[in-house]
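Q: Please design a sequence for this.
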């Protein structure tokens, strides 16, 4: 008897030991054993190849992720995965065809997470593939871009964030510039700390090489690096020698490019009018930053410049009726005016821009360059609010006499409208990101247009065809005009360029003839690069013109851009890359994200490809409704209404649930009381559920629990993640370093502040938000099978509403019910950056059409 009891005790002890030591997995099961970034720049055309080689060191198959960030301006042109000697190439297809293939895969249950998101300068490319036990995979991604000259330099930005220190990490950059490189500098987070020693720059006359080979140890020791290795950018800036003002012509394989950037021309004095939005939505930091930027810009004006200042909300105020010379006294007076600009009413863009046009038009133009700069952060909401009419009015008033530049501040602007209006009037639109450096962005934009050298520039190429844009209204010092085309007769030995423009006080002509077959030329590494450069520039310009065109012409150009995108395998807004994975029939689709839109979630939210806008509601500053003041909504077409006063309260709602609504650009949002445990997402058929327990008196959740197929249980709180699959028990800690765990069709990928949970066809990211001493969780449902009817708060995908126009208080119509709404600032907790966005805040019942009690659970 005694023996038995002893044996039992021993067994129990063994069990206890295994139960505590075995489960806690903190080792990395994925080894990125090599990571190469190889960038070649030939005549400003940069082709970058990222190659990542990864081993699954686990004894079972698991999903391995590949995620990189590429410059926004670039087109992806190739993606390849190699697994067990077999290659899988991404294929670029027309958007509709790709979508179809994707939908078919989804309906077969071979779901395909589409991945795209966009930041300020970089966008994400993300994919994953299941790799067998102890096997390897190689990912290879290629992207291409034409570097743009700004303020006298080109910038090549390379991001590296492999997610772990890599034994064999190499970044090689080779720049070849025929006229010679005048200066080159390497900057960025990756050139800080210990890493400075890992960068080597070699210069020859026409070439420069930058290598960056940090050791594994060095990879953890830069400013933005850590346990997870490199995380940051390398920024290579350079310029080329410009010996001839006629510019540089490069010819290769039947294509040419002409870079025109003279700098030895006298500056033309300018007439510049700033039209500044001071509507309620500019309240707070935006208004402060705008004032700051204007003060600096005024200081930078040259004495022979003339300038005007217009501020507007629903009323338009002119600082002075005429343009005034930038004398010291005038500038001082202007600065006093700027310091007094306060945010107040609605947004009458039409009246303000027309006032600016009028001011410039009345000023004599001879020998000067006129520029109109509009800064706004919102839709037109007062006066003329019909966008088509505003554009027609502005176009007619400007009549191609000078360019209009539009600066869209933040994400509430109708950026399409601003882009279109600028392009129609010879300018460009630029986005100003709502961030601590917005004032510098504003000033940076002004610096680019501060020194006009030429106006009315026409470029001519008698021997060229299929030319990109050849006529420009202004040329500014520090920028560059680029024209590319095909050479009509490739057998001719010379090629002629001619530029006609108006300079300060004379008409100027630059003529040049170059030999197309220069024996001293070293052929570039990639013979086809010139053709690709031409295609890149052509597609970019065709896409840009799309907003201006209508009918047949638009369709034709659209077709042309699509044809070129397909031919050169560029992932553009018209195409998608379809990646077929080794797992039978599974496909993934990568799109080019659209500037200014939040990352789309395919699968859950239907794609809204154009932002539908509507015009009648006026609104003022964020959150004024909370302050208890009432809104004034001018009727359609009303003019010069008294301005709207707002209280100063502008609370940001940090605990709202967002509902994207098909066909509406403004999301709905609602709040949930924090004293219930909630059913967040449920699919009874696959026995899946996700429940959450909110933080008491704070935003977000303290615990989120998943249950799947009765035996899988996952519980996530703000310190740890515990998972039980019926047999094994695993525990991870937040911040322990990237980890993956796969068990049957459940996959967990843990990163520093998010965990990706995949259960069957359902994928949810749980974000860990940390700020000011509080930490909370927030789920972001990424993907769910389309034809399954989900329940739970995040299961609602069919929200809809209409705005009721003309009522005294903001009112929405939801399911035939009129409900009151507030237009508020809210944090979007579905993104780790938690950007502040705007949404229509309505009651829980109005949004969900059910009572909260229908979503409560007693147990997680
Ligand atoms: C980088 O690309 C160039 C040109 O394609 C090639 O010659 C070189 O070997 C590559 N380097 C690496 C490290 O892959
Ligand atoms: C790995 O798998 C093999 C064969 O299935 C098995 O013999 C071995 O014990 C496993 N090793 C580990 C560490 O699980
Ligand atoms: C244009 O810029 C170059 C250097 O970037 C400078 O040397 C030149 O003086 C500038 N021209 C004028 C007119 O400001
Ligand atoms: C420049 O050319 C235009 C037309 O070609 C002419 O009208 C104008 O007078 C010329 N300006 C000067 C300063 O020569
Ligand atoms: C999270 O869960 C773990 C394991 O259940 C527990 O030890 C820990 O105290 C929890 N943390 C919080 C903040 O509740």
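A: Design:
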């Amino acid at each position: 008897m005694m023996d038995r009891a002893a044996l039992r005790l021993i067994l129990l002890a063994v069990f206890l030991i295994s139960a505590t030591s075995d489960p806690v997995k903190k080792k990395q099961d994925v080894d990125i054993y090599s990571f190469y970034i190889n960038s070649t720049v030939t005549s400003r055309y940069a082709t970058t190849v990222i190659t990542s080689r990864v081993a699954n060191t686990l004894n079972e198959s698991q999903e391995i992720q590949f995620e990189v960030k590429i410059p926004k301006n670039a087109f992806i042109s190739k993606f390849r995965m190699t697994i067990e000697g077999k290659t899988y190439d991404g294929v670029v297809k027309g958007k509709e065809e790709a979508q179809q293939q994707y939908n078919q895969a989804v309906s077969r249950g071979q779901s395909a997470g589409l991945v795209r998101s966009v930041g300020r300068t970089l966008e994400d490319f993300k994919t994953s593939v299941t790799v067998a036990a102890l096997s390897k995979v190689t990912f290879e991604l290629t992207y291409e871009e034409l570097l743009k000259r700004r303020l006298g330099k080109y910038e090549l930005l390379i991001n590296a964030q492999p997610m772990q220190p890599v034994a064999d990490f190499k970044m090689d950059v080779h720049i070849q510039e025929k006229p010679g490189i005048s200066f080159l500098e390497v900057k960025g987070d990756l050139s800080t700390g210990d890493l400075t020693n890992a960068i080597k720059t070699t210069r020859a006359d026409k070439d420069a090489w930058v290598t960056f080979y940090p050791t594994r140890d060095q990879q953890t020791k830069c400013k933005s690096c850590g346990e997870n290795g490199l995380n940051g950018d390398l920024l290579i800036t350079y310029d080329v020698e410009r010996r001839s003002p006629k510019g540089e012509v490069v010819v290769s394989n039947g294509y040419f490019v002409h870079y025109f950037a003279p700098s030895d021309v006298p500056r033309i004095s300018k007439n510049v009018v700033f039209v500044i939005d001071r509507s309620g939505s500019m309240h707070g930091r935006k208004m402060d930053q705008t004032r700051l930027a204007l003060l600096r810009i005024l200081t930078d004006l040259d004495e022979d410049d003339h300038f005007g200042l217009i501020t507007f909300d629903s009323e338009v105020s002119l600082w002075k009726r005429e343009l005034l010379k930038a004398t010291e006294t005038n500038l001082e007076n202007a600065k006093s005016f700027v310091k007094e600009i306060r945010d107040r009413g609605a947004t009458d863009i039409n009246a303000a821009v027309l006032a600016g046009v009028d001011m410039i038009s009345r000023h004599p133009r001879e020998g000067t360059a006129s520029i109109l700069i509009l800064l706004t952060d919102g839709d037109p909401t007062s006066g003329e609010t019909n966008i088509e009419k505003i554009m027609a009015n502005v176009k007619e008033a400007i009549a191609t006499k000078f360019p209009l530049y539009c600066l869209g501040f933040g994400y509430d602007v109708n950026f399409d409208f601003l882009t279109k209006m600028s392009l129609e009037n010879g300018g460009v639109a630029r986005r100003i990101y709502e961030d601590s450096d917005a004032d510098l962005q504003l000033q940076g934009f002004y610096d680019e247009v501060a020194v006009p050298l030429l106006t009315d520039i026409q470029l001519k190429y008698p021997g060229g065809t299929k030319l990109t844009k050849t006529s420009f209204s202004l040329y500014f010092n520090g920028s560059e005009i680029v024209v590319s085309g095909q050479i009509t007769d490739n057998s001719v030995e010379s090629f002629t360029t001619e530029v006609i423009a108006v300079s300060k006080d004379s008409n100027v002509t630059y003529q040049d003839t170059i030999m197309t077959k220069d024996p001293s030329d070293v052929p570039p590494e990639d013979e086809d690069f010139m053709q690709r450069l031409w295609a890149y520039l052509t597609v970019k310009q065709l896409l840009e013109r799309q907003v201006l065109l209508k009918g047949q012409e638009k369709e034709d150009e659209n077709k042309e851009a699509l044809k070129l995108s397909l031919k050169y395998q560029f992932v553009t807004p018209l195409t998608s890359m379809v990646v077929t994975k080794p797992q039978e029939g599974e496909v993934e689709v990568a799109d080019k994200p659209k500037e200014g839109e939040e990352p789309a979630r395919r699968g859950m939210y239907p794609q809204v490809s154009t932002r539908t806008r509507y015009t009648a509601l006026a609104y003022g500053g964020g959150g004024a409704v909370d302050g208890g003041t009432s809104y004034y909504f001018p009727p359609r077409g009303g003019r010069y209404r008294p301005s709207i006063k707002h209280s100063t309260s502008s609370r940001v709602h940090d605990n709202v649930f967002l509902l994207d609504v098909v066909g509406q650009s403004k999301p709905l949002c609602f709040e949930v009381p924090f004293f219930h445990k909630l059913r967040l997402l449920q699919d009874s058929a696959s026995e899946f559920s996700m429940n959450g327990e909110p933080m008491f008196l704070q935003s977000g959740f303290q615990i989120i629990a998943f249950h799947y197929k009765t035996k899988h249980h996952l519980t996530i709180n703000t310190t740890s993640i515990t998972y039980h699959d019926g047999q094994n028990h695993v525990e991870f800690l937040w911040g322990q370093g990237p980890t993956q765990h796969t068990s049957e069709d459940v996959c967990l990928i843990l990163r520093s502040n998010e965990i990706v949970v995949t259960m069957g066809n359902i994928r949810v990211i749980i974000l860990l938000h940390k700020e000011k001493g509080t930490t909370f969780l927030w789920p972001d449902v990424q993907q769910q099978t389309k034809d399954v009817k989900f329940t739970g708060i995040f299961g609602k995908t069919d929200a809809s509403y209409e705005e009721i126009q003309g009522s005294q208080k903001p009112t929405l119509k939801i399911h035939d019910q009129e409900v009151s709404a507030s237009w508020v600032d809210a944090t979007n907790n579905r993104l780790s950056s938690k950007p502040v966005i705007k949404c229509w805040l309505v009651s829980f019942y109005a949004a969900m059409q059910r009572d909260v009690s229908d979503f409560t659970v007693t147990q997680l």
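Q: Thanks. Anything notable?
A: Residues 271 and 370 are 5 Å apart (CA to CA). The two ends are 44 Å apart (CA to CA).
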